[in-house]
Amino acid sequence: MTKIWRKEEWERAEEKINPPYYRKSIEVTDFIIEYEMGFLEGNIVKYIARYKHKNGLEDLKKAEWYLRKLIKKEEQKDE
23 — phi, psi (to 5°)? Predict the structure, then answer.
């Protein structure tokens, strides 16, 4: 059975999916799409954009993890 959401429920869900720290002058998802970024690049941008407003150092470490993966991927292209 399909759930019909009331406006308030939809707004609460939207806030969880797209919180204010992702909505500055340009939304992070729009930036990622505009620059045709892949999964690794997109996650790097996401974690860098939100680290001051959400998980601090933890988000920076996540961005670093994705960056290391991306660097490894790019190095393998050169082999």
Answer: -115, 80
- How far is the C-alpha of 34 from the C-alpha of 39, rounded, in Å? 14
Report, in angstroms and rounded to the nearest whole number, the Rg of the chain calculated over CA atoms: 16
Backbone CA torsion sign across 68, 24, 33, 17: positive
**d(Cα 31, Cα 67) in Å, to the nearest integer?**
18
Map tokens 């999916």 to a residue. Answer: 17
Integer Cα distance of 60 and 65 in angstroms: 9
Residue with token string 């601090």: 56
What's the CA gap between 68 and 79, in Å, rounded? 17
pTM more than 0.85: no
Block means of pLDDT (10 residues each) for the chain, 79 residues, are: 68 67 76 95 95 94 98 90
Alpha-carbon gap, residue 6 to 55, rounded angstroms: 31
